[in-house]
Design goal:
- The protein has helices spanning 3-22, 26-47, 51-71.
- It is 88% helix and 0% strand.
- The radius of gyration is 21 Å and the shape is flat.
- It is built from 3 helices and no strands.
């Protein structure tokens, strides 16, 4: 009887380790990046920086986000 619980916990422990590996990192990293992206958008919009600089940074961030998602 001593061997069955250890096998059960071991099996559960293995599945618990494998699950995060199967999920893409986009769920965490992408969500954080998107939150920062929206926050920067609102900050720039709030301070009303001159549009050329604002759209340049916004476009660069968008390109970085697309590249980040494609790399995963």
């Amino acid at each position: 009887m001593g061997s069955t619980p250890s096998f059960g916990t071991n099996h559960f422990y293995n599945t618990k380790i494998e699950l995060p590996k199967k999920q893409p990192r986009l769920s965490n990293g992408g969500a954080v990046f998107l939150c920062v992206y929206i926050a920067l958008f609102l900050i720039f919009k709030f301070f009303l920086l001159f549009s050329a600089f604002y759209y340049c940074i916004y476009t660069v961030l968008l390109i970085l986000f697309v590249l980040y998602t494609k790399s995963l």
